[in-house]
Write a structure and sequence with these properties.
D-Maltodextrin-Binding Protein, domain 2; Arc Repressor Mutant, subunit A; 137 residues; three-stranded mixed β-sheet; alpha+beta; 49% helix
């Protein structure tokens, strides 16, 4: 069995909220689903993440502290990865526009209207093609 992001989210929620029931409410997930995920993670590692006692809050074991800290880190990095490509820095890099010399007077003027402010994190280069090779302009 492999870990899933869902299992990690559930384990972190249980640690944050202090109970499986509260974690389920916070995530809008049933308590048995949270319990199953925690049990699966504990089975995978062969160690308990939480000390469970009826009538009192769940407490992290020493292994649980380490595992939850790592799970938080993994989830944060996954969110950063998912955030790539969103926001104003989504388009970045070099824009290279090539055109045959004969077509340039007709097709390039609209592209010159794209100012650097339209794609702030980019550099622009224009190239023209003679009959045998490309040249940088």
């Amino acid at each position: 069995m492999k870990l899933t992001f869902t299992q990690l989210r559930y384990v972190v929620a249980v640690a944050r909220h202090g109970s499986i029931t509260a974690a389920g409410r916070a995530l809008n997930v049933s308590q048995p689903s949270i319990s199953t995920a925690v049990d699966q993670v504990e089975k995978l590692y062969g160690q308990k993440l939480f000390v469970r006692q009826r009538g009192s809050a769940i407490a992290l074991t020493p292994f649980g502290h380490t595992a939850v800290a790592k799970a938080r880190q993994v989830l944060a990095e996954a969110e950063e990865l998912a955030a790539l490509g969103t926001g104003s820095s989504a388009v970045a890099g070099e824009v290279v526009l090539g055109c045959f010399e004969d077509l340039a007077p007709y097709s390039l003027p609209p592209s010159f209207a794209l100012s650097p402010s339209a794609i702030p994190a980019s550099r622009s280069r224009y190239r023209r093609r003679h009959s045998t090779h490309w040249e940088s302009a």
